[in-house]
Structures are given as C-alpha cells and as structure tokens.
Amino acid sequence: MDVEVRRRDLPGLGRQFEIECDDGTRLAVVVMNDGARHLYTFAPGAEAASGVIKLEEAHARTLGAVLAGVYYEPIGDNEEAPAVLGAVAIDWLTIHAENHPATVGELVDPDHPTASLVALMRGSRTIMKPGPDEKLQVGDQVLVTGHRADIEEVRGKVISRQA
To answer: Which residues form the signal peptide (predicted)?
Structure first.
C-alpha cells in the first residue's frame, strides 16, 4: 500500500512531511534546519495539533530505524511481508542454546554469499564486525543481515541445536 506524503517547505525552519492514517488522524514531521525533528499528531479534521514530541537528531534517527524495522520486523501470519530493505532482512538475535556454535565463524560462515554477522553485543560492550574466531556466549546478541531464509537459519542455530 502506497501512502501519500505531503511535503512543504518552511522557510527559515526546515521542511514538513505529513501523512494521513486510515482513521483520518494526521501525523506531521517537521525536520528542522538544525537536525531536530518535531512530530505532531492531529485528530481527524482538526487544524491544531493534539500532541507534539521534539526529538534531537540522534533520537530521531534511532526512532526512524525502529519504525523502519531495523531492530525488529514482525511477520505475523503474512509470510509475504516485505524485508526491511528490499530483499535484505536485518535482525538482532540472542544466543539462547547451551550448545550454540562456539564462534562467529561457526554461526555465520565469513564466506557466506548472502549472510553477514555485523555486530555482537555482550552486556554493555559492542563489537562491530567481529572476526570469525570471536567466541560466542549464551546471552550474546548478534546483528545478522541477509535474506530472510539466512536469518531463519541463524536463528535456528542460536535458539536450539541438536547435540
């Protein structure tokens, strides 16, 4: 479903983008010239905003990633749901299996043609592009990209494995 985005310049301030939801509620985002974003909600038919949230650029980008499905993209019953970025799926997976693969390279082959392990979070520590010899522990979170089938294959390895 294509959603119309109305745009208008706000001289000296930035640019406004507005969408109308199925129930008539409108959502406007004003991207300020300084990078801040202001989100406004409008009740159906209302001229004045019923709510506003002001976000600095970093928070706005993080919220945008959440809304775009970078952190989690539910499929529900719709197996035809589009991947986050065309054919590319992205997901954070937590290692639960006691007999999980011992290293990053065992979890995702570094020479795999379509899957990559992009980051590993262990507690408050983040390891970007961990090497194939990096040891894995139960509780580690890994950011994996690839086709949806690649993600499911990796998910199977970290949730439960046959000994």
So the answer is: none
